[in-house]
């Protein structure tokens, strides 16, 4: 809980700190990587450092956390913390790293706010930082303890590499050693760590796309991002028989409970809903499921065969498709919920490009689905949660 002493100081300085975060976060990362260059090898994304997205996400989450604390000093923003904790654990973040981040972040704040900062203001912001850090440390300990092993990275052997639609590939992997495997939940992701051509280790999170309950294989599907660093290596360089490092499964946007479900997905964002559909089929669970999917054209849909077969075998499952390229029998253009018969008691899962998710969430709320029942998965730095709109 934020102390009564700190609260007015945070309220008074939040606009100023918020307006200077654009300078504070790059200053922080400069300091952090100067002192710990090893963090760039296998932890932080080089691409998101150079395009500035990591800085924006950090700035947004500090501001978002402080804003939430000021509004409700007795509550911690659980959903926000849970999302960050799942991402952190998939990268192997440890408790001691919070102290390292604290030192460099507060040195950066002291430098960038030198004209206004006082010892009292610094102390109030320290309190905010440690409220957030300690809450994350606690959640992350619980997530690590839940795993079947205490490893961060495990070697898995690629046993199949299958083209999936025009731009994606489905990788099927088997354990390369005898580390105990955690059973995943539908909707979860793993971090995948590969060496780039220049030797730097880099990780990305990919949703499991099928058979999440298996302990003998992992399946994920990834779209090639030509401007990216990791998916081109996976698509071009990783061959059947190669070992790839995977984390344990994480992610809190999972298909739980019973009742009607709406999946609204676009592009490669279909992967978590594909694993959820497969889980329903495996469990022999029939329930009302509305699958809404959007693509450029039919050929681009990475998991078309798997998802259409699974939808057909679930009693109560229906599919509606939007294609940007006009195609007979399907909606044309971007997805729209207008005029659809949405079950208003449904849980809704949204995944795809950020503008798509924002549009779907707004439209679903208009259509009467409560915001608490709308779940979304963001890949990459969490710019939406960060409140940058
Ligand atoms: N790599 C992965 O395994 C996963 C990636 N993602 C995320 O999905 C996103 C990219 O997916 P892509 O397949 O490349 O998407 P894309 O750019 O090919 O777009 C897919 C579809 O999204 C819809 N769309 C695009 N912009 C829209 C807008 N402004 N409003 C409404 N609808 C819009 C369109 O129907 C489009 O055909 C990335 O942000 C990625 O982070 C999500 C899940 C898994």
Automatic annotation (TrEMBL):
<dbReference type="GO" id="GO:0046210">
    <property type="term" value="P:nitric oxide catabolic process"/>
</dbReference>
<keyword id="KW-0349">Heme</keyword>
<feature type="domain" description="FAD-binding FR-type">
    <location>
        <begin position="151"/>
        <end position="256"/>
    </location>
</feature>
<dbReference type="GO" id="GO:0008941">
    <property type="term" value="F:nitric oxide dioxygenase NAD(P)H activity"/>
</dbReference>
<keyword id="KW-0479">Metal-binding</keyword>
<dbReference type="GO" id="GO:0020037">
    <property type="term" value="F:heme binding"/>
</dbReference>
<keyword id="KW-0521">NADP</keyword>
<dbReference type="GO" id="GO:0046872">
    <property type="term" value="F:metal ion binding"/>
</dbReference>
<dbReference type="GO" id="GO:0051537">
    <property type="term" value="F:2 iron, 2 sulfur cluster binding"/>
</dbReference>
<dbReference type="InterPro" id="IPR009050">
    <property type="entry name" value="Globin-like_sf"/>
</dbReference>
<keyword id="KW-0411">Iron-sulfur</keyword>
<dbReference type="InterPro" id="IPR012292">
    <property type="entry name" value="Globin/Proto"/>
</dbReference>
<dbReference type="InterPro" id="IPR001433">
    <property type="entry name" value="OxRdtase_FAD/NAD-bd"/>
</dbReference>
<comment type="similarity">
    <text>In the C-terminal section; belongs to the flavoprotein pyridine nucleotide cytochrome reductase family.</text>
</comment>
<dbReference type="InterPro" id="IPR017938">
    <property type="entry name" value="Riboflavin_synthase-like_b-brl"/>
</dbReference>
<protein>
    <recommendedName>
        <fullName>nitric oxide dioxygenase</fullName>
        <ecNumber>1.14.12.17</ecNumber>
    </recommendedName>
</protein>
<dbReference type="GO" id="GO:0019825">
    <property type="term" value="F:oxygen binding"/>
</dbReference>
<keyword id="KW-0520">NAD</keyword>
<dbReference type="InterPro" id="IPR039261">
    <property type="entry name" value="FNR_nucleotide-bd"/>
</dbReference>
<dbReference type="GO" id="GO:0071949">
    <property type="term" value="F:FAD binding"/>
</dbReference>
<dbReference type="Pfam" id="PF00175">
    <property type="entry name" value="NAD_binding_1"/>
</dbReference>
<dbReference type="Pfam" id="PF00042">
    <property type="entry name" value="Globin"/>
</dbReference>
<dbReference type="InterPro" id="IPR000971">
    <property type="entry name" value="Globin"/>
</dbReference>
<dbReference type="InterPro" id="IPR008333">
    <property type="entry name" value="Cbr1-like_FAD-bd_dom"/>
</dbReference>
<dbReference type="Pfam" id="PF00970">
    <property type="entry name" value="FAD_binding_6"/>
</dbReference>
<keyword id="KW-0408">Iron</keyword>
<feature type="domain" description="Globin">
    <location>
        <begin position="1"/>
        <end position="141"/>
    </location>
</feature>
<comment type="similarity">
    <text>Belongs to the globin family.</text>
</comment>
<dbReference type="GO" id="GO:0005344">
    <property type="term" value="F:oxygen carrier activity"/>
</dbReference>
<keyword id="KW-0001">2Fe-2S</keyword>
<dbReference type="InterPro" id="IPR017927">
    <property type="entry name" value="FAD-bd_FR_type"/>
</dbReference>
<keyword id="KW-0813">Transport</keyword>
<keyword id="KW-0561">Oxygen transport</keyword>
<dbReference type="GO" id="GO:0071500">
    <property type="term" value="P:cellular response to nitrosative stress"/>
</dbReference>
